[in-house]
Amino acid sequence: MIALVTGANQGIGFALIEELAARLGENDRILLTGRDRTRVTDAATKLGGQVEGRVLDVTDASAVAKLAAELGAVDIVFSNAIGPLTPDRPQSEQADTFVAVANGGTHAMLRSFLPILRPGGRFIVVASSLGTLDHLDAPLRPLFDRVSLDQVESAVDQWLSAIHDGTAEASGWPEWINLPSKVAQVAAVRAVAAQRRPQDIADGTLVAAMCPGLVNTRASRPWFERVEEAQTPAEAAGKMLDFVLADLDPAAYGELIRFGQVLPWHGKDNNE
């Protein structure tokens, strides 16, 4: 078996690797990936065993495709990489880098690793409960609803263009760039899952987005009060893997999952 986690040298990604190492066999390969060679090497060395550190910048689609071609097949993939986002700088100044990782990286992983996912495998995009469609104004929702992956990418480009030309607010885009980004992540998962669903369900394969809940990490601490009362990365990873490694629930396929439950794509008050 081959398992791979992106953005895995710290936080939830590292905890997922640690939990996979505890649950999988000693002959299984577990790839801990990240952009910084030193951090990746240090993290992989700390865990040892079947954990293998690999440098991977998910914003480089060619590098993602190259690694997928090298591996040839995978069984478990967590697309978990995130870009830096802090409240002390204007959101517009951070949008390009953040979206390149969170969304461009998600798209690259979906395009290159889904085709090599073995039957019965698991492909999870680590997202957020903020990724439901009701977090966008109604006129923007059709950009992400019942669309293809190409159309999701086009909508993300449209949003970034609006940020840079100063029309984002007038167009109804939220100021907090995390909201459209998370919606786009979930929309991307739904887009590819819609095409694969019949065969994947037959094979017992899961493709889904997953919200780990509030976790005390470097990324979350600047944004939330009392984050010290949130889950630890290890607690969140354990709950995620309990669900991921269980038998496939067809109702969860292609959906956004939090604590084992499907979050309605259109929000609580609109389940159309």
Task: Write up what this structure looks like.
Keywords: NADP, Oxidoreductase. The protein has 272 residues and is α/β, with parallel strands linked by helices. It has a single domain, classed as Rossmann fold (3-Layer(aba) Sandwich). The protein has 7 helices and 8 strands. An 8-stranded mixed beta sheet has the order 3-2-1-4-5-6-7-8, with helices on both faces. The chain is globular. The termini are far apart.
CATH homologous superfamily (4th level) name: NAD(P)-binding Rossmann-like Domain
Rg value: 18 Å
Q: Give the domain tally.
A: 1
Main beta-sheet strand count, sense and barrel state:
8 strands, mixed
Q: How many extended strands?
A: 8
Order of helices and strands: EHEHEHEHEHHEHEE
User: Rough shape?
Assistant: globular
Top-tier CATH class = Alpha Beta
Mean pLDDT: 94
How would you summarize this macromolecular structure in one to three sentences?
The protein has 272 residues and is of the alpha/beta class.
Keywords:
7 helices, eight-stranded mixed sheet, 272 residues, 41% helix, Rossmann fold, alpha/beta
What's the SSE blueprint?
Blueprint: E1 2-5, H1 11-23, E2 29-34, H2 37-47, E3 51-55, H3 61-71, E4 74-79, H4 91-113, E5 117-126, H5 149-164, H6 178-203, E6 206-211, H7 233-244, E7 256-258, E8 261-263
Parallel strand pairs: 1-2, 1-4, 2-3, 4-5, 5-6, 6-7
Antiparallel strand pairs: 7-8
Keywords: NADP, Oxidoreductase
GO molecular function: oxidoreductase activity
Protein name: Carbonyl reductase
